[in-house]
Fold this sequence. Notes:
By secondary structure, this protein is an alpha+beta fold.
Amino acid sequence: MGTPKAQNDTHFLVGHGYDLHRLEFHAPGGPARPLVLGGVKFPHNRGPVAHSDGDALYHAVTDAILGALGQPDIGQLFPDTDPRHEAQDSAVFVGEAVKRMKDLGWRVGNMDATVILETAKVGPVKSQMRANLARLLEVPESRVNVKGKTHEGVDAVGEGRAVEVHAVVVLVRG
Ligand SMILES: [Zn+2]
């Protein structure tokens, strides 16, 4: 499959991805899953309410790539009504976005993400998140960045009731 003509008129593409998952206390039979971000499990008394594994970092990165390509977003490609995606490892979603990117003749230049989480520290696992993302995005770790922030106690994210992620990606000719 050749590169569509419409994509030959620029040297790079920028994509933005955003995701938020509600965090609920763990309870027997409750809605929460273990908290996973960037493929790294966090010991936490709350977890995301999600159909898949609820990895908000992988979801934001997937949407950033799909957005840069002008493709349907993660919710359209992987509807949460599809039983195949129940508790799905979200690395699969990133992999599908990367496959579409490569098919269209692009590769990742760099990716930068901010994880906003009040009650667990991203710092100690940042290098593991970067390693996971670098492997999935097929780039050196130096081209992948993850920053952790709190929400200063403000609003639902600040009260620990949600995790929020922003991601920006630049795609260059593959
Ligand atoms: Zn999500």
